[in-house]
Amino acid sequence: MDKLYIICVDDQREVLGAVMKDLAPLGQDFLLEECESAEECEDLLEELDSIGAHVALVISDHIMPGRSGVELLTQLAGDRRFVATRKVLLTGQATHRDTIEAVNAARIDHYFEKPWDPYELLTVSRRLLTEYVLAQRLDYESYAAALDQATLYRELH
């Protein structure tokens, strides 16, 4: 079974810790990585690509020093190596224009305003991971305990 990666990006340690805590139930089946900037995430993506790892999900804060989460996710959306990677944007300060840019340019799969509901973040992450596993034609049975059963049922029947 290939280990799949979930990358969480936020420049605030306490927010990053909260996201990692909310996603901890996925830690038995997926590798959770944290980055404090878009640049650090890009370095990690290069490293993971060089070893042939699967990056299934990237969850990024919007407003960060340097490059924003929208810029990071837009770059990811345009990189053929990560075309199947699911993308989530977390924000506490986005304008309507920022949201439109995130949806259109970055092709995000989900958008959360801070503070988010931990259960909803975990539920949406499970659904997006399930979509990734199925789109990549990976052995979904290896990850079945962590995947969204309703999505599996809908897609397989």
How helical, in percent, are the residues? 40-55%
Largest sheet strand order? 2-1-3-4-5
Return the domain count. 1
CATH fold annotation = Rossmann fold
Count helical runs: 6
Computed over alpha carbons, the radius of gyration is: 15 Å
Low-pLDDT parts are: none
Largest sheet: 5 strands, parallel
Indicate the CATH class.
Answer: Alpha Beta
Map the helices and strands.
Elements: E1 4-9, H1 13-23, E2 30-35, H2 38-50, E3 54-61, H3 69-77, E4 86-91, H4 96-104, E5 110-113, H5 118-135, H6 149-156
Parallel strand pairs: 1-2, 1-3, 3-4, 4-5
Q: What does this protein structure show overall?
A:
This protein is an alpha/beta fold and 157 residues long. It has one domain (4-156): 3-Layer(aba) Sandwich (Rossmann fold), CATH 3.40.50. Helix content is 43%, strand content 19%. It contains six helices and five strands; from the N terminus they run E-H-E-H-E-H-E-H-E-H-H. The protein has helices at residues 13-23, 38-50, 69-77, 96-104, 118-135, 149-156; strands at residues 4-9, 30-35, 54-61, 86-91, 110-113. It has a five-stranded parallel sheet, with helices on both faces. Strand 1 (4-9), helix 1 and strand 2 (30-35) form a beta-alpha-beta unit. Helix 5 (118-135) runs parallel beside helix 6. The longest helix is centred in the last third of the chain and has 18 residues, at 118-135. The two termini are 23 Å apart. The model has no long low-confidence stretch (mean pLDDT 92).
